[in-house]
Amino acid sequence: FFPQVDSANAGRVLASDAAVFLKKSGLTDLVLGKIWDLADTDGKGILNKQEFFVALRLVACAQNGLDVSLSSLNLPVPPPRFTDTGSPLLLSGTASSDVPWAVKLEDKAKYDAIFDSLNPVNGFLSGDKVKPVLLNSKLPVDILGRVWELSDIDRDGMLDRDEFAVAMFLVYCALEKEPVPMSLPAALVPPSKRKPISVPGAMPLIPSSTSTKESHQSLPPVGILAAKTPLTQ
């Protein structure tokens, strides 16, 4: 992977090049930002080979549901997976329109009933309306933050009917003590979202971003209890 990013053979990787490459992991910007902070130890915006390896290792940990922390570095994990960003489905790495949706029909009907009971506006629920439902599960705030991150697939701060079903599915999985994934598996992407335009693949990323949409959604980057703010937008 290193020669792919260090094409000039300089022995180091710039933040912009690393960001484009790490984005291919399918992990959320929040997780990638955390990985960058841990790898770029002195905050110089450049990774040497060893630091880049740390970033790769942390990507692998995140993809396998492990904690993104330095203590995870010694855990046995398979190598990280990266997809071609030209792929129409960045989240899964395959153009998987034929993968059946993980949300079963009978469950979807239940989730739809909850959705309708929350008085959606124009087919959407704001974070303020979804937040009490999530908190009602009594799951830790960091887990709920990740559920929101994964279910708000188009990053508009609101959930439509299908995104809400993804959120509910993840909450019930977490209540069954199943780990909430760091990136949305292909089977969980709603069929309605399996279009090239639905995935913000080319957004600028870590360590800083100039895109107003991006900076709006990742307000404030620190001290947010692992993404508590998206719930309250």
UniProtKB/TrEMBL annotation:
Name by which UniProt lists this protein: EPS15 factor
Keyword Chloroplast appears in the UniProt entry: no
GO cellular component labels: clathrin coat of coated pit
Keywords (A to Z) from UniProt: Calcium, Metal-binding
Gene Ontology annotations of biological process type: endocytosis; endosomal transport
Ranges of residues in domain EH: 1-83, 107-195
Alphabetical list of CDD domains matching this protein: EH (cd00052)
Domain EF-hand as annotated: residue spans: 27-62, 139-174
Example of a GO MF term: calcium ion binding
Superkingdom of the organism of origin: Eukaryota
Key word Metal-binding present: yes
